Amino acid sequence: MTSRSTARPNGQPQASKICQFKLVLLGESAVGKSSLVLRFLGMVAHTYNPSYLGAAFLTQSVCLDDTTVKFEIWDTAGQERYHSLAPMYYRGAQAAIVVYDITNQEAQAYADDNSLLFMETSAKTAMNVNDLFLAIGKSQQNKSQCCSN
Q1: Fewest CB within 10 A of the end CB: N or C in the chain?
Q2: What is the mean pLDDT of the chain?
Q3: pTM for the complete prediction?
Q4: If we measure between CA atoms, which residue out of 94, 42, 36, 38 comes closest to residue 69?
Q5: CATH code (residue 40)
Q6: Cα(70)–Cα(22) distance, integer angstroms
Q7: Residue 125 belongs to a domain
Q8: Which residue has the higher pLDDT, 94 or 29?
């Protein structure tokens, strides 16, 4: 199969592969899961976001080299009363972002011990937010969720 490349309006070639995968955000209530996703979507994260039932579903696509990565993002509710619903949302996910309060630095050691991607981000300042999602997209780029255009 040959890959084709058509020009986009901005003159850059269109991606020849499409990757689509499920990504879930996990973490306790009020640690910034929704704010992180809103930053990635290009929206300003507010200090107060109202709670929702169970999970919110969002999508976003990014271009990485010759691949369009389409994220199906499940932002799970962190409240204790919704913990029983969480497995339903993260079943079948190819990636998970665990969001936590930065004063808990045990996460770095856990990630190191288990060969996991670890990156500190800030939804407030947007530090490393796009880099996090791009790193996840690159790690999934060559997996079976990708197909030729």
Answers
A1: N
A2: 79
A3: 0.72
A4: 94
A5: 3.40.50.300
A6: 9
A7: yes
A8: 94
